């Protein structure tokens, strides 16, 4: 097999560009990681230590930033004074629930759209996508009215339903592309081998696993990081992490230490999820299945 | 084992007919090849047999059972797909075992059958690999393994070796034929490669434009094509066609071309049966029914000019310009004519054909 690498040859320009690219990436890395780093370190600092900052231009004074006695009190207060345990659970249920529901219905719908020809298919598909075209805020008020009349405001099922409304079209859209790439012949072989239509569908699910994995991550991220739905639909009974964190900003004092700790608690699971699922996102399982 | 009967079968895709009024009976235990160019309806026919497409009209019977409304899983057929269609996430062992698992066979049976099939196909050492670790020929064997492991009523092979290289294809032709003979299961083998059909099948169904052109043994198809289309499609290098006049002269009937006048053999005159007397017809002659020489062998010989020589290893193919058309002649590599030189062709009249100039049906 031929190499897939693009052949390139060194020129003075390309060398200069390489250096520039390296520089840019280094700056970009600092730009993206520094806030997390500050958040992480500050969450272990007392309030006074947290605001000890060197003067502008005083590079030697940067060590001040690291002079502190680590404390876990912000974390403990999150779980004792505030009920962050419940909020984490709420976030997990809302994000996970909507991801599971969206994957189930999304893969069924995507499979049908990919495999079955029927009249108005293109229009239906466009309609499904178009539900994502309006910004969330635009539909918030009517959605709130509907949810209130159904007694879903402030409940986890309500929140799950709200997320699913927005995740499902996305699921169908992503997964259809993945199903389109799975050759018909594999299901046909499965059916001739003796399976039913539904068994054949199930048999190709491993082949769209990268798509499902990618979608689950995006779906969970959307729900986990969402503030608007959580604040309006979930307010009260189904408080999630972002809303709970926002409530640490009170009129009389802003609890910076707790906010930083809450930030870490909110961010860490998503980073872990990204690491775990990464291999799904890059593995092309269909490789070698079919002679193209 | 089953006799397969295709009775007045039609297949429509929207308004377009893909298969038109097809009638074929495949005897029990026979190797039948459906041969035709792409778009001739051969794959649609196969897919209707497998149950992957609905039948628009007509009936398909396995023995005496009408299978039109049976799902693929209930037809007890095994199919090998052109692109193998292996399950990429399963090992070779699991791929071959799949049909047995779906039929809830016991683990012992599965193991025995899979190892048996693997041994037969010489892929025992590959059982733990996954499809992407296999070469084309190996994948193809795995696909066949998956088909034979179940001992079905009918094998359906859809151009299974089309993607292999020429040498492996020649090898697999022999293997598949041998396999079918030893299993004794009825096999329907779709191909666009006339060589595969001629070399492997007991019977060939030649299809074109959704219609069955001819049904017969390979020898019948090759030696007695029913029309000019079949004659031109089967055989490599392809048959030469020349438009000629038919002219009666005394007791003789002559085929007259601007370049030559050759009398038909007496038996052939009877086969012509006066139908095309004094009209035009198409004369067809295969390259190996012509002989070429640099000196005029007799009065009836055609005279032309060598256009190009192609050496094909053991044979030489000479293309000859004959007035306004070109015809190809097979000869030995020792032939010494050079392009641009005059040459003479004579026809083996036992092996030529005359087709109707209109609908192309064969007189003989």
TrEMBL record, chain A:
Compartments (UniProt record): Cell membrane
Keywords noted in UniProt: Cell membrane, Membrane, Sugar transport, Transmembrane, Transmembrane helix, Transport
CDD domains listed in its UniProt record: TM_PBP2 (cd06261)
SUPFAM superfamilies found in the cross-reference section: MetI-like
Classification via Pfam families: BPD_transp_1 (PF00528)
Boundaries of every ABC transmembrane type-1 domain copy: 88-277
Coarse class of the protein's main subcellular location: membrane
Membrane-topology annotation of the record: Multi-pass membrane protein
Source superkingdom: Bacteria
TM annotation in the entry: 20-41, 53-72, 92-113, 125-147, 159-179, 200-224, 256-277
Family, as annotated: Belongs to the binding-protein-dependent transport system permease family. MalFG subfamily.
Function: Part of the ABC transporter complex MalEFGK involved in maltose/maltodextrin import. Probably responsible for the translocation of the substrate across the membrane.
Name this polypeptide is given: Maltose/maltodextrin transport system permease protein MalG
Species per Swiss-Prot/TrEMBL record: Albidovulum sediminicola
From TrEMBL, chain B:
Organism this protein belongs to: Albidovulum sediminicola
Keyword Translocase: yes
GO molecular function: ATP binding
Keywords linked to the UniProt accession: ATP-binding, Cell membrane, Membrane, Nucleotide-binding, Translocase, Transport
Entry-linked InterPro entries: AAA+_ATPase, ABC_transporter-like_ATP-bd, ABC_transporter-like_CS, ABC_transpr_MalK-like, ABC_transpr_MalK/UgpC-like, Mo/tungstate-bd_C_term_dom, NA-bd_OB-fold, OB_MalK-like
Family indicated by similarity: Belongs to the ABC transporter superfamily.
Every ABC transporter domain range: 4-234
Family annotation (Pfam families): ABC_tran (PF00005), OB_MalK (PF17912)
Coiled coil: none
Leader sequence segment: none
Xref: PROSITE patterns: ABC_TRANSPORTER_1 (PS00211), ABC_TRANSPORTER_2 (PS50893)
Phylogenetic placement of the source organism: Bacteria, Pseudomonadati, Pseudomonadota, Alphaproteobacteria, Rhodobacterales
CDD domains: ABC_MalK_N
Protein name as catalogued: ABC transporter ATP-binding protein
Presence of keyword Membrane: yes
